[in-house]
Protein 1
Amino acid sequence: MSEATALASSLTGCHTCNQVVRLDKDHHHQGLLCPRCGSPLHPRKHHSILLTWILVSLAFVFYIPANLLPMTRVVSLGQVQEDTIMSGVIYFIQSGSWYIALVIFIASVFVPVLKLLLLMFLLISVQRKSCWRPRDRTRLYRITELVGRWSMVDIYVVTILIALVNLGALADIDAGPAAVNFAAVVVITMLAAKSFDPRLIWDNAALPEDSAMKT
Amino acid sequence: MIICHDCDLLQTKPDLQHQGKALCHRCGAVLFRSVPDSAQRVVALSLAGLILFAVANIYPFLAFDVGSQSTQTTLFTGVRELYAQGLWALAGLVFFTCIAAPLIQLVLMMHIFLPVMLGRTSYAVKPAFRLLLQLREWNMIEVFMIGILVALVKLTKMAIIIPGVAMWSFMALIFILTGAMTSIDGRIVWDRVDSEK
Ligand SMILES: [Zn+2]
């Protein structure tokens, strides 16, 4: 349960081919390539914490206009109707499709915030050198990796509506400014999850647990 | 020996003979998958996937009836419409996540595993395998499918919508592509690379 990490024994694993590679003691571990498959080796992801913080903050900046600005603009019989994500959710509740409302609310509003809050929690716990339940924190990290993609749902809905409605010529539908902001949130949060290094969780956790078990 | 990607634990490589996943005994991450006849499975599934992909892109995705008017749309129509509205970044993202990424994955799997099946070494297998792993999270066709369902509910009050043959192919492609990616046993590729030296 509490063995030291590979880095402590000057070893690292290739993420592409699983080769175990010995590291030079005095080397800075930058620009290393796997001797078997040529993939870049990252004994720890470079500037992981700083980069993840920057991307998380940037995602919050895009998240606000993504939710406040209109996602679609429909022109039908001279009338213009603008819909934000929340007004779309309310439309589905009022028309009785509450399960669709729930899907959009969870995917577009809840998931991005959940993902960003989880990443912030993990960042803070690593910076405070916490050794609290590393296995569960690694699970939380895997959740952040898995859920982000589902926020693309609303982008796809807009794409399909545009394709169908404009062809049918019964109305004109345009993607609003929220769509681009929303896409930015999804891509930036995915990059944020990628730049976080879960092995940092275990760097702090492994040793104190070891001494706790001996006593 | 093998090192866990998630917690950096050095551990002895489990010798899996049968089908299964080797898990890290500290954090539970999947270390690798053991799949019997991995190359044959991946080749068969990605061949099926390529056929489904072609059908999904050539045939109409949805037919749309409003009164006397009837129109058909293909998978690519939405991307073209976004581009026509000047939203090239959005068009690019939808194109990449729903068309390009799954296609490149299918082609790479054929490129890597067909030679392995025939006992040969494929050209540029190392960067090809790395790219295949990196594309995994950018292929979002299952999310696109949910998007279609939501759009259909939104439009049923305005028009009659008939799912086309492309939509069923696309749905099948989700399962075939997932099946192919989880049938990959990387060890057969790297054993081959090692034996070349
Ligand atoms: Zn592990």
Protein 2
Amino acid sequence: MNSPTNWTQITPAADIPMREGRSVKMGSLNIALFNLGDRFLAVENRCPHGHGPLADGIVGGHGLATTVTCPLHNWRICLDSGEVVKPQAQSSPCVRTYPAKVENGIVMIDMSKKLSTEQAA
Amino acid sequence: MKERLVVIGNGMAGVACVEQILKHTQEFDITIFGDETHTNYNRIMLSSVLAGEKEYDDIVLNGIDWYQKHRINTKLGVRIADIDSAVRTVTDADGNVTAYDKLIFATGSSAFIPPMAGVDKSGVFVFRTYDDTRQLLELSGPGIKAVVIGGGLLGLEAARGLQVQGCDVTVVHLADTLMERQLDSIGGGYLRSKMEAMGIRVLCGRSTQALLGGTHVEKVLFKDGEEIDANLVVIAAGIRPNSALGKQAGVTVNRGIVVNDQMETSDPNIFAVGECTEHNGQLFGLVAPLFEQGKVLAATITGNRGPVFAGASPASKLKIMGVEVFSAGNFDCSRPGVEAIRYEDSSLGIYKKLVLKDGRLEGVILVGDASDDHRYMDWLRTNKDLSGQRRHLLAPPPAEDKGQDVASIPEGDTICGCLGVTKGDIIHAIHADGVCTMAQLKDKTRASTGCGSCTSLCKSLLRAVAPEFEEDKAKVLCDCVPFPQDKIREMIQSQRLKSVQDVLDIYGNGRGCEICKPAISYLVDVVWCGDHEEDRSARFINDRVHANIQKDGTFSVVPRMRGGVTTPAELRKIAEVAEKYNVPLVKVTGSQRLDLLGVKKEDLPKMWEDLGMPSGQAYAKGLRMVKTCVGDEFCRFGTQSALSTGIELERRLENLYTPHKTKLAVVGCPRNCAEATVKDIGLIGQDGSWQVVVGGAAGKGVRKADLLITVETTELALESAELFFQYYRENGHYLERSYDFVERLGMEKVRRETVYAVDEARQGLLDRLRKSKERSSDAWLERYNPRATQFVQIEPMETPVNEFAN
Ligand SMILES: Cc1cc2nc3c(=O)[nH]c(=O)nc-3n(C[C@H](O)[C@H](O)[C@H](O)COP(=O)(O)OP(=O)(O)OC[C@H]3O[C@@H](n4cnc5c(N)ncnc54)[C@H](O)[C@@H]3O)c2cc1C
Ligand code: HEM
Ligand code: SF4
Ligand code: FES
């Protein structure tokens, strides 16, 4: 099924300082939004290791990946793909990612992915 | 009798040639004359010395022990002034005569000084020798206006070095674009903007007429009448071969001393090697071909005549950190049958150009990203037919990982361009000689002892092939900023870098990670005594919200109770707050204070307001607390006032960052009830004096603190603690506890540089501590002026359509 997009206005871009993350509660869902300067990225705010709050992590970059490091035990998560990049070769599930963009100074997230998976479940 | 071999010139080419000769035979009685007073060092690395990245010891290639081991008569600081080739003698400037059977000229070249008035003024330099570099280092610094004449490789490296030393630098260049001999005008333009982005002023198309001023230079005057201020001038306008002695000896000299393919001059007993030579009309300015020459000459002079020197089209690489520029071959594409392939990304500042003829590479220019240079060099060297891979010329199919990248390099490929070491040579050294560190590899193969740009490739090879690969000692902070912490501290200081992002942009990969960002945050804070640009995104979450994150993402709140002393009113308030916010756990900590655990981030500022107490910084890599015993105010054994002294000490040091957490204690007598002997700093009261101890630990390991000093007054005890505290702040590595710190430095050094230091040094430490203290404040006051949404739980402006449909 080719699901339609579902862009949802979240918060003024100025609320999220450069290279920091903030968490946003969307009903039952907790999303971590990051300001990378030239773009915003959104992932589920829950580390696959011990459920640490990724929004509170330090943003960095390694090779091609832009990452956040979980504040609890330093797992590194790729913000574009949601994959765990450290510790290496972790077979743990990815963190879910959400498309994000800024329009008229407002950060927006496309929630269609979330809806379609939930509806499927 | 052994044949007498005399070498004039103790530089890179001459000594490398002697090394090669020694491989062939030990049958020469060798004398080397050098008019510099140093043994052979890596001249290429002078740029890095000027930029503060390396010191003299790092660039020595042959120490005096090498000369002794090979029984070489070494005459340092001796200049040869005359040669009589008829009787085969050389005469030094003092008139001493030395006879030779064979003579090698290895006199190198000198800086070319363009004709202009005023070059004899003080403050005018060239950049050729270690002594030049040392003088430049002495004179440069903040407030100095430096002008570099010449915008080629050497001039730009000099400019960057001076700027790192704090000078205000202008590069003046005759041509319209920088490095016009190595780059086309587009590449030169990119290079220019990179230099300018670093804060170096660039003036192209300027011809210098004169250097003005009294005895010392004050201004540079251009032909068009324009003047600029200058109190330091470096002339880097090119080099000229030192060939005058050749003329005296009667050998053929054009611009350089003329040599044939076997490195022979027109006199059968005289040879030449290095930048002083001219071969087929070509002069030299880079080391790679000179080492080739040395190999050929070594064969010729030892009676193994055969190998020939074929000339070379060497590659140039700019050695400025953060500015990648590489150029090789012929990039002129106005010739018939020549085509150019270009790639350009102006916002990343990347420009690449390949020049092809008949499907083969003729020239290459890389600006902004020179990571693939060895590929192109090999295509050039082997004249490889590239028609089959036209699609992948500029962007090779991505390799899976670094290891495979190394594996995919063919055995015959050159890894170290300067010294001509191939991958095969390195693999051989690893297997045959058991090489497993970079230092051993340098020793065995000389790889990476030239310009050093192949170091990371050599390391990857070692890592992939050597079973027992070991990283070299000086531990770098992390891959993002690959320098030891002490270097980074120096760079922050000399470059006046005030923010973490500046350090990452200039010396790192621009992005950083959770390892380097907090470390650099610490370093910029301490170097500038708090007068830096605080970037919270580079701090760990605890230091963004001034509380300790717990395993469930909640936080703990520990208010400051100086000296572990509280009041009924304070306790009442704490109790009320704990109830009001439903704090799940109240705990007396190991540090004589109370911890309220399980607090939500958004509740933090309100709780601090209700408590009205300062932050205890129980989360920070900084001063935690000063534990005390009741001391002579109550205790019947007490000899000193532990309570008031401890509280005063905590007031003086609170709110400051340290390399790692720092825990203090003050006790009133040697019974030591608050365990001062296992603290980072402890004050132990005695009858009529205080013992100040440092470097204690009672955590995973236990270490009894060392005595720093015994003093009579309480004020002196406090001051001694302050001295050590600031010294540790300034010299400790981030995440190095005081007990590792004192072991690394040794207590003797610590004492010598703190309590027993000269007055000025002690005063300096105290002044910087006071300055930092003035700029610091209770972190919990941020509740009144939060940084953006520091403590806020963001609520979405709208809910997605259908979100709660089921
Ligand atoms: C700052 C700087 C950066 C450089 N960067 C690079 C680079 O990145 N890549 C690269 O390939 N090359 C670089 N070079 C060039 C490289 O250093 C030279 O090509 C190389 O050192 C030349 O070696 P040489 O032995 O011919 O001359 P030198 O190393 O100059 O040695 C000649 C020695 O002979 C001595 N001498 C001269 N005349 C007499 C005399 N009459 N009696 C006694 N002694 C005498 C001189 O004092 C000198 O010590 C750089 C040079 C400088 C200065
Ligand atoms: C993330 C891990 C850690 C947490 C959350 C933690 C937490 C704490 C807290 C909250 C206190 C009281 C602090 C105060 O009142 O200021 C404390 C004290 C202490 N911690 Fe830790 N700590 C940690 C790691 C360590 C480690 C690694 C060591 C030793 C190597 C250590 C040794 C101590 C000691 C010795 C005290 C008591 C100090 C004293 O009574 O003088 N802690 N810790
Ligand atoms: S250390 Fe000495 S002064 Fe302090 S409480 Fe113990 S016995 Fe008393
Ligand atoms: S919860 Fe993220 S690393 Fe452990």
Protein 3
Amino acid sequence: MRLKIKRFHYARDVEEALSLLSAYRGRGAILAGGLDLARSFNPKLEGLIDISGLGLSYVHEQDGGLRIGATTTLTEVLESRAAREYLGGFLAEVVGQVANPPLRNQATFGGAVASAHPWADLPTALVAVGAEVRWVDQEGEHRARVEELWQGEFRRLLSSAVITEIFLPPWEGAFAFGKLSRNVGDIALLNCACGLGIEDGKVAWARVALGATPRRGRRLLWLEDLLTGEAPGEELWQVVREQVEANVEVGADRRASAAWRRAAAGPLLARTLARAAEKATARQR
Amino acid sequence: MALEGKVVGRNVRKVDGLALACGRPKFTLDLDLPGALVGKILRSPYAHARILRIDTSRAEAVPGVACILHHGNVDRVPYTTAGQGWPEPSPYDNFLFDRKVRFVGDRVAAVAAETEEAAREALRLIEVDYEVLPAVLSPEEALAAGAPAIHDEDDAEGIYDAQHNIAAAVDIPVGDIERGFAESDVIVEASCEIPYSQHVALEPHCVIAYFDEDGRLVLRTSTQVPFHVRRIVARVVGLPMEKIRVVKPRIGGGFGSKQEVILEPVAAALALRAGRPVVMALDRAEVFTATRTRHPMRVRVKLGAKKDGTLHAIEMEALSNTGAYGAHSLTVLSNTGSKTLPLYNKAPHLWFHGKAVYTNLPVAGAYRGYGATQGYFALEVAMDMLAERLGMDPIELRLVNHIRAGETSPIFEKIGEGREGKPQTVKSCALEECLRVGAEKIGWREKRARRRREGSWAYGVGMSVSMQGSGITGIDMAAATIMMNENGSFRLLVGATDIGTGSDTVLAQIAAEVLGVPVERISVYSSDTDFTPFDTGAYASSTTYVSGMAVLRAARKVREAILEVAAGMLAEPPEDLELAEERVTSKKTGKSVTLSEVGHRATYVVDQRHIIASASFVPEESPPPFAAFFCEVAVDTETGVVRVERFVAAADCGVAIHPKLAAGQLEGAIVQGIGHALSEELLFSEKGRCTNANLFDYRIPSALDVPALEVVLVDSEEPSGPLGAKSIAEVGINGPLPAISNAIYHAVGVRLTRAPFTPARVLAALRG
Amino acid sequence: MQEAMKIYFELNGEQRYVEIEPGESLLSLLRRLGMKSVKSGCETGDCGACTVLLNGRAVRSCTTFAAQVRGKRVTTLEGLGDVDDPHPLQEAFVEAGAVQCGFCTPGMILVAYELLSKNGAPTPQEVRAAISGNLCRCTGYVKIVDAVLLAAQWKREGKWR
Ligand SMILES: Cc1cc2nc3c(=O)[nH]c(=O)nc-3n(C[C@H](O)[C@H](O)[C@H](O)COP(=O)(O)OP(=O)(O)OC[C@H]3O[C@@H](n4cnc5c(N)ncnc54)[C@H](O)[C@@H]3O)c2cc1C
Ligand code: FES
Ligand code: FES
């Protein structure tokens, strides 16, 4: 790899990073871990702005939620006690399935949100928990739910902004993550994140996101509605299997056919929901 | 019974192990050559096209560009890239650069420039006008009436039927196949298909071409076949062979992909034109699309058997896709039959027939297993079907039918390396024991009887057997030179090509055993066409057996010379002397002299001479190693995901000269086979462009994909081999595809006959 | 034009001050500096042959920009030991038969080094997970896992540095 960029900058603070970005007018990029940038071979890039010195590597617990600094590496997330405890280990479960240790040593949480690869696992998980992205641009500070951000023209927005932090809110119930791939180190052919709140033996709320369809993770609102008020159990999971196969929107890419995704999505969701329900019930006790 | 060797049969330190573990600069590109140019190749964007015009003037104007080669300014010499013995069995259908391109990635031109950037810039500026031709993207299309002829040039040689896109064909009848099936009680048929897969040696193909002090061309290259490189490059660039030296440093894996002479002629031609050293290294995408792949193949096997399970008739038909060029097209196809059918030698009626056809897709070539892998997939699935039809245990069926020591098969004589073979009697075979040991380890009886099921996961066990060969009868030739230093240490020079297999170590062990010294006293050097004797190279599981015999012979000659010198020192006839533990001892008096004393005397004192000997070996037979494979799989019936939970292999490689290295070969081959079975496949767009030519999308197994893997080496002793050895490098890769397919069948009752068994394929099969 | 830049960093215990191109990879820089143990197998981050330790953590040098190591500590396999004074991990790889062609070996040893620096008694599964980003096409990984477990044992026995 050898990008033909002209300059490499070490930003000292967010303001400097922003002013450098704007000076490049779309031909500069924020560099966090650099993993995606190094693989991008983007010929238009002229300058890279390294933000690793901005003090944005941290994981803080806040009222049961989690604040993760944008340049925190995935390994640092896995090693942080707060992150390991968040939602009964849900985040660690997801991050532990991202790529492999050396890549996790380099990849940053903010980079994952900014790249938001459609096949990636973190976006699906973040959509399910309703994570909030916080960023700064010339106009000031902003925040938005990841799903809102990704629904808009976020790549253009991020070309003149710096993500500073991702906030993962607290939840009463439990979440579980599911991933199907060709072999263990592979990216997902299909992934899902499921959260359930259980009260009096019934589903009080549900948060279900399906990703790598091959599109980026999105919530299945109709499935959440279907689950709410029902009693978790094999019968309900069977309904999930059937309804998902009948209604889910999936497509094909070179990794998997639409027919397989349609057939596999139901079982994947049903199992992941069953695990979430088990955890939620255990938590209640 | 293993040979009780002092050195042989022991896990001595791999001679190059520590240097490699310390990252010493031992590989091709670890040499910095000041002033070297960078060579790059312009590749065809079309699957099939004629080059109408090529204009390099803008490219040549790029600062730093030294020269640009294309069909308009190089000699047109038909040749094959397949690095094989002589006469070359593959068609001469390649040219350094041609007026036509035949697959996406085919060579159009090559540039040498001062920097990589300049070379890339020049590639960008070469103007080429193409006349795009209709492309042939499958063997069926290639054979269809009116299909465009891919090799319509009139100067290619040795193509079976160029007009109909048939690179090679075989038709081997034995007995009367019709009668055979008519007389059979049970008939089954299986048709199995292997797609494009690639070797993925971790070191991409690379070469440095430079000139020595005398102006001779030196090629330092990542190859399995240095002597074939020299011969082929000499022909293609028009240099006398003695003006070329090929050096093989340490090689980062090959598996057959470096038995091809792909990059060397280009680098040589660039260096000669520029008069300067040239470095060329392919990137991973080029390795995938523009080196070589396994031959995709569909093999149909029809078995006829008597009620007691004895095979009576076997038909095997293969349709092989050789891609745009016919490298190894005939020999891989031949091996599909010749390495499989002798295993079941009870059937008197055989028919092996098939074709290797051209397509406008990447070029197939040698890949570990070499056609046998494709053949065994179908044969062993068919055997599983037959066992079921007969209500017999699959192991029992193999026991009834497999070849034993002292037996032969007509196939040995009928099919050789692109011509007739030689009759051969198998002299060692421990397959029965392999079957017994493997079955016991996996718990065959219990697991076969009771299928386990946990939720949606269904478990099953399956098995397969295979054999291979050890070198190529009458064609392979290896030579070795051993010289003694005056301090009693030795230098072993071999043309044999250690490409990571550990053959330097194994060959040193053979020499050390005979010479009565520890391996540390022998420094091995492989291979360099200037300084090591000839060897056909590392392929066809030949090194331990063929090169090992050459080393054994040379070592014996050196021992004789040592004993002769010692006889003078001890005043006793050589017959009464013994060479062991670095000394020559009189069996009668117990008096002894050290090797160092012998060396000193021979070099400096009396009747001076260099104790040195060379020897060659050509195999008269190719003794097959055997292996039995067992695996347990889990199949997710809801998603089609398959996990290999356990894999057991028991193999008979004769005496394992170095058990750990032998086991390592088997383990590596099995894991490649598991990759074939579960995930490996090159995919193509409808225009013939490979869409997953990278290690992100083309999944090879990682450490987490390897199941509990146990390999057992079952002892046997091959009388024709060096100290009892046969071979082990390839046989392991034939097992996983059929064993896993058969295990899936046991688990869920569906036959997977198209590799790889991806979740989508398995689920589709499950859903009917 | 690309502006050359200069950076300080620590390479195998030595302070270095080198000129780099702003878009150059760490892989390219290290090989230029003679660290030939750092291998190129893909240059897209997918194989692990180019692994080095950056402040003690294994990373791919092909997907790391040379400029990113400014002020940091880089260790290549050369920094662990050499033939006349090998590191126990290097010995263990030879002892266990984990070296076939040796092309993946530098990266494997370095990820193993990081693992053992954090976890002195890994399970086989933990070893597999740790090396799972590093591809080996020769060994089938069996003996590499053995080697790391052997090295871990030596470490527990105090044979380490
Ligand atoms: C081989 C491989 C395997 C992978 N496997 C998985 C997987 O299994 N599951 C999964 O979920 N993900 C996976 N990923 C994705 C991985 O998580 C991301 O690539 C990684 O997190 C990117 O982080 P980075 O810091 O290296 O990004 P960089 O390369 O530094 O940046 C990526 C992009 O984001 C921008 N950017 C980065 N940080 C900021 C910021 N703070 N503000 C604004 N813009 C920013 C950059 O300008 C650039 O455009 C994989 C990636 C690779 C390369
Ligand atoms: S060369 Fe860096 S990961 Fe392959
Ligand atoms: S030893 Fe060859 S790639 Fe690992």
Protein 4
Amino acid sequence: MADIEGLLHEVADAVISCKKEKVLEAVEKAKAEIPPEEIIEKGLSAGMNQVGVLFERGKLFLPHVMIAADAMTAGVKLLEEGMPAGTQEKKLGVIVNGTVEGDVHDIGKSIVSTMLQPAGFEVHDIGRDVPIRSFVEKAKETDADMIGTSALMTTTLQGQREVIELLKEEGLRSRIKVMVGGAPATQAWADKIGADCYAENASEAVAKAKELLL
Amino acid sequence: MAAEYALRMGDGKRIYLTEEKILSEIEAGSGNAADLGEIPDLSVDEIDKLAQILMMPGKAVSVEHGMEVPVTHDIGTIRLDGDQGNSGVGIPSSRLVGCMMHERAFGADTMELGHIDYSFKPVKPVVANECQAMEVCQQNMIIPLFYGAMPNMGLYYTPDGPFENPGDLMKMFKIDKARESMEHAAEHLTRDTVWVMQKLFASGADGVNFDTTAAAGDADMYGTLCAVEILRTQFPDMYIEMGMAGEMVLGMHGELEYDGVRLAGLWPHEQAPLAAQAGANVFGPVVNTNTSKTSPWNLARAVTFIKAAVEASSIPCHVNMGMGVGGIPMLETPPVDAVTRASKAMVEIAGVDGI
Ligand code: B12
């Protein structure tokens, strides 16, 4: 048991070190002892979560997050080679993420997209200042399970409500979850507009998306 | 039942808290800053004082006699004529009128002239116009009048500028290319701000305000520090104020250093000495408001960070106080109860030199 934990730790630490070769090495080692799903969940994802936390604390920076994400994706690919047919490349869910119309702030939204991807979601980042209708159109086109909306200004928050209203109009609300974020958004706001969840930062966004879509 | 005091959430919502709850929120907020910044918590006396300020019965409160500090303004006159959700009240007025209103009606101790775009890059083609406005304002005004704008380095990336957008490059995992793009943008930022300020100093500006430094991350801060350094050498007597965009310098590049210090991930108390080193006269630290937390939590957190910055700084610190910063809720017109309490706490506990 201790050995298995040690191996998982090694995988997680390799992700945190942001070195692709180290991640691949650790995954290769763990593969012989531990089922791939467990390596992804308790090794790779656990490491990536920690990367998110270190980023928010100012200890790791965007290039590191990107390299760690890339390394994690490579690790997952390696594991998928050993998975039974049909389970390969199975995504946790499809998420459309963007900043609402009238709002050009996209730094935080892009970080959220960056963190969701290696966590196992198929992410379609549709950019900033995105018309409300485009969120819904893109969700239809990609058969999305969730829409993420970012708003950084009190004046553009309303766009998050409008996305939900349009989903209702189109009869898609029960099928597509909605996650809201951005500095002025709060849990209370999410409750008020009937969003499924609110997340304060990128690592919380990953945790909440998993909660909702798994 | 214990008495309850009217306070707010970070999004401005009215809440009522008991003294016990206020104290525990203050401790938690201060603890959060201490943990992130690796700085001291507020002392028991400071926590008590902050609670007293928050529980004062008056709607507006003020500093004690003799503790008044200078108040200066950023964002030019957009606070009056702005109508884009940025604390502006949408009153059409010329910039001369706006500047003079700040001087003669609002009690500003220094003022700044700023363009509606409020970034250095778009000022380049209209710099003659800005110089003329500066001269006219200077002929009518007494208080020091600065020229203010945002470094806003994002304007040098595609689609707004010449260099490939590092965000796009990062998505393709072209990390080195992304870093090169940031370095080029920082060079242009330095060059443009120095050029613009040479003209404005020649037209009588008393100083310059770099507002929202590091909005585009560590390279934005690097470009700004270099500009401060050059301007200090060329204009030894000019006032240079450097205000920040957020509490922590976002590490978009991750490896840029100034004076041997890595810029990514710096907190206010680590930023202040670099501003001084580059040659700034005034540093404007920022602490962001968390809209999901209470005002005691936010204010205690902000005061803890700013106190450490004031202590670490060899130049005066004028803390940024406004919508969503400095323990003030995120509202277009920040409520007076919250603004005055936060201001009093910043002066009397954090020891700021100005606001
Ligand atoms: C950088 C910045 C800019 C840059 C944006 C560059 C870019 N490409 O994004 C520039 C200079 C272009 C800019 C422009 C403007 N800005 Co601005 N800007 C900021 C600033 C300083 C930082 C924002 C930021 O990037 N933070 C860092 C990131 C990492 O944090 P974040 O965005 O909060 O994201 C995190 C979480 O919120 C969450 N999250 C984010 N999105 C999502 C999405 C989902 C689905 C989830 C779950 C989570 C989530 O996770 C992220 C990672 O942890 C803020 C002030 C501040 N300090 O916050 C003002 C601020 C947001 N801006 C403001 C304003 C007013 C403007 C302008 C209107 C100014 C003007 N007069 O032109 C324009 C906006 C034009 C427009 N139409 O949008 C105001 C908004 C006020 C309001 N009404 O609410 C602020 C608060 C400043 C202020 N106090 O006045 N700005």
